[in-house]
Amino acid sequence: MAFETITVETRGHVGVITLDRPEALNALNAALIVELATAVRRFDDDSGVGSIVIIGSEKAFAAGADIKEMAERTYPQASLDDFMGGDWLAVSRARKPVIAAVSGYALGGGCELAMMCDIILATESARFGLPEITLGVIPGVGGTQRLVRAVGKAKAMEMILSGRFMTAEEAERAGLVSRIIPDAELLDEAVKVGEKIADMSLPAVILAKASVERAFETTLEEGLNYERAVFYSLFATDDQKEGMAAFVEKRQARFRDR
Ligand code: CAA
Questions:
Q1: Distance, CA 184 to ligand 1 centroid (Å)?
Q2: What is the model's pTM?
Q3: Whose CA is nearest to atom 21 of ligand 1?
Q4: Neighbour count for residue 117 (Cβ, 10 Å)
Q5: What is the CB neighbour count within 10 angstroms for residue 89?
Q6: What is the pLDDT of residue 201?
Q7: Spacing, Cα 61 to ligand 1 middle (Å)
């Protein structure tokens, strides 16, 4: 399938998806969401890929759902089509780690897309916001849930109720962004992080991600039990034997994802 709203490449063992609707600041229209979901699922299923990077342009990661496309939607259409379900959720359903590399605007659905990713790297120019309230609606793909978990109630409420944007620096301080990267290095750095992850044992990576996600879903006791069970299960892998043998033998581990 040839893509029209994104470009896709593989760098080493990292799948890179570039959102590519510059004329609309990468606004997430239906076509882009279908293509993004297709690309994410393909990389997730590709045994040669260990992690995925999603990046936009220098000016915009994505300025939200496409307002022009959804302006005339009716309630029955939105509800019956499950407008923000299906392909919109593909990134949050990926089993492999997904890194958002954010420069410029990450607003509305764009901010929500970044928050579906596992790690957010950002440049100084990044601006995060959920301005849906200014359009007479509310965030529809996770904003009210993920932002509050990322930055706490006070900042999340202010942003969601007033539409205020957060700078990259504030987002890093608040814990939304993992690190701020110089503009020119954003993609290379995101790929470097992705490559580092891809070098690890994939079963361990997938279970580490699943275990961290549990922290948001369950009680501490249940989460600890899950983590312990997963930890024990990894002793059934060849990669555990290899990883520990390599440490003892003072050499680099060579994981084979089994
Ligand atoms: N949908 C559709 N088109 C968009 C868009 C969006 N979300 N964001 C920007 N564009 C388009 C603009 O209409 C403009 O197109 P034209 O040249 O054809 O008029 C082009 O992109 C460039 O945008 P601006 O001229 O507005 O650029 P700017 O630098 O002056 O402003 C901006 C940038 C502050 C990001 C401004 O474009 C903006 O406020 N965009 C909308 C942000 C927003 O409200 N996002 C939330 C959408 S709702 C949502 O996402 C729901 C959900 O929860 C899933």
A1: 24
A2: 0.97
A3: 24
A4: 20
A5: 16
A6: 98
A7: 12
